Amino acid sequence: MLTRHKVVLYNPAAVFHTMPLGLLAIGSNLDRNRFEVRIVDARIEPDPLAATLAACEGAICFGVTLLTGRPLGDGLNVLRAVKKTYPDIVTIVGGWHPSLFPAEMLDEASIDIAVFGQGERGFAEIVECISGGNSPEDIPGTVWRGEGSVIKGTPRRLESLDAFAPPDFDLIPVERYFELKGRRQLDYITSIGCNFRCAFCADPFVYGRDWKSVSTERLGSEIDMLWRRHRFTDLNFQDETYFTHRHRVADICEEFLRRGLVFTWAGTLRADQGVRLPDKIWKLCVRSGLRRVLVGVETGSHRMMKRILKDTTIDAVLETAAKCRQFNVAAIFSFIVGFPDETPDELESTLGLIKTLRAMSPSFETPVFYYKPYPGSALAASVGEAAPKTLEDWAMFDYVGGAAGSWVSSAVYRRLERFKFYNRYAFSPGRRLSQPLRRISRWRIDNDIYAMPVEKFVVERLHPSPALS
Ligand code: B12
Ligand code: SF4
Q1: What is the reported pTM?
Q2: Over the stretch 246-259, which tens digit does the pLDDT of each residue have?
Q3: How far is the CA of 335 from the centre of ligand 1 (A)?
Q4: Which DSSP state fits 201?
Q5: What domains can be seen in the chain, in order of their start residue?
């Protein structure tokens, strides 16, 4: 009888309960007859470190997915503890931060191998090597320690998702995620990469403006099976740009309708894609359950829109917003502020656009994030010395919690934090108790008066939980 080798995967602590799709992708592509896959998610374990150390007993390797910011810090702590307790376990990191900084990951002694880019095939090859008692070297898309130096393998070409096994949701306690999310919402990914070139985004750097997807037929039957099995009521597509090909989107809607699947769904839409989407596809989307789109607007300034290579326009944003209103689709319009050379007038244009969108519909949200200089782009280069250098610095570099880059003055930061607070309450439907706060917030936003933010002080004292915007 074959020995089943244990492989442990760790998802660090983070603010939301999105399902760990990266770990599901790599874990589902190991031969389950030969490998026992255990996923430990810090977001659902009461004592993640103890659970990880217990799971790693007898395991041949420990894989961690790492996002920049606090998840990176948590991941490093756990990697160190695992390596200390089990010096022979092979530790592997992958995901967005290692894809941006593969070689730098090996500055950390507790990390043996870093995988960059799409991970399914590289991870399977590494695990195969380890289980055969071999040292995983020369595997494309990975970085490892050679004789006295760190060696980077050749990059892998992005592969169609049809080349891999679909995510096996039995690897995670799906019901527990539903409970924590407060709704029966399943996360899913139908494509990887993005064809666009936005200068602030990690995607063009990591996937070279390539985009690959799963076929609609396979997606239809997977979602059908998952819906019957888990009875989710909402499907959250986590693709970078779900509406990349409008005819594919239409085919997926037809699949859902043909199979009689009843749920709502949400996906990412660029403003220019919203404009190009014919009304009949908007209607089809709504008929098949579209409830919300996520549109990365980023800025309300024409010059910044060009500078960040967004390749869309503010008119397109407003037109897409009008379409959302026309077809009764909710929208999250997300913004980025604190670009290195953003002028005060440009910042005001952004805040103005946010107010315009909020006033268009109560079902429009406008979260605001601070710009972070991810490498590989002209924008990041312009930040120069201010960019974080070590892994520890990157672990402290987090959008969540509201940190801005050092080039954002404290006056601008204060103004933005106050604007974000009042903007959040000014337009939200809220309960009766919060109506005075809503009125005062609306008054402050309409008149641009943010001095003496007593309400902000009181609310943050009462509800100190981290928020995204
Ligand atoms: C869901 C999500 C989250 C979830 C994370 C869920 C989780 N697992 O904990 C939450 C909400 C917590 C989150 C937070 C943030 N996110 Co986010 N998020 C996403 C999103 C939309 C989907 C991630 C996903 O599941 N992808 C699908 C899976 C299949 O892909 P994957 O994770 O990349 O995994 C593949 C490879 O990376 C690799 N791989 C991944 N892990 C591992 C591990 C090993 C061992 C190996 C070998 C390989 C491997 O193999 C996988 C299969 O090919 C992505 C965009 C995207 N489409 O990827 C943005 C994205 C990852 N997020 C991003 C950002 C900017 C953020 C925030 C900073 C922003 C914010 N608004 O707060 C924060 C940072 C985290 C924090 N400080 O808490 C950026 C990248 C940031 C970065 N450099 O790390 C992305 C790419 C969006 C973008 N284009 O800007 N995010
Ligand atoms: S911001 Fe969105 S559209 Fe632009 S490159 Fe990144 S994923 Fe693509």
Answers
A1: 0.95
A2: 999 999 999 999 99
A3: 18
A4: -
A5: 5-152 (3.40.50.2300), 183-408 (3.20.20.70)
